[in-house]
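Before the break, one more example. Copy the sequence into your notebook; we will annotate it together after we see the structure.
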Amino acid sequence: MRAPYFSIVTVTKNNLEGLKETAASIAAQDNSDWGNHEWIVIDGNSNDGSEEFLKTTKAHWISAPDDGLYDAMNKGIERAHGVYIIFMNAGDVFTDETVLSELQNDIDEPLPDLIYGDALEQGQDGHDYYKYARSHKHIDKGMFTHHQSIFYKREKIETLRYDLSYKLAADYDFTARFLKMNPYAIYFDRPICLFEAGGLSQRNAGQSRSEEFQIRQEMNVPMVKNILVTARQMIAQFIRQLSNPLYWKIRENF
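Here is what the structure looks like once it is written out:
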């Protein structure tokens, strides 16, 4: 039996409606031959009917207590068999039904270690904003796209896992370490995911910036540059709180 091309890992806890949205998005993919992708769900022992719903799906799933989001994502890595892994947590959806087929058809040999694309961000004002990815070569300035728009080549992950000491920025740390070991990355020119704004890292922006600062220190980013990156993030957060449309207008032009 051949390995699936994509492993879609979903972490969830007591988010049945979000889980259903993600399930529908995966099922709608036009390469919906389930030999071509697998859906792995790591449920944190939900009590909202998620387990009953999962029994009706084709997901490979477990439901058990865990040590938080990143511990659950590590469990997902260990259960994946695909050529590439992407993390689409409960409530995250693909932008349309052709994402996986287009990517699989358009990527040439030799296969890159990492593939990333743009994102659509669902603003709290009800509008969807196009979030262009920055180059992965600027990982020292922060995450270059949403985590849900990144495909990691599974065999290159090896023993790499999310560092549980980071509560909000372990995805940034994971991606930075992955790229250091596996620098062959390509940009796929299209939006991959629809991301709902107001997530955990945005609600706790100060702690997230602090963790990212520490990660850049471990990357040996010069102190002055690290301070400037953090200052830029603080200014961006201030503008976003002041006016979300203004924030996106500025972002489009810089």
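The beta strands are 6-12, 37-43, 60-63, 84-87, 93-94, 114-122, 128-131, 150-153, 185-196. The mean pLDDT is 90. Try to locate both features in your own notes.
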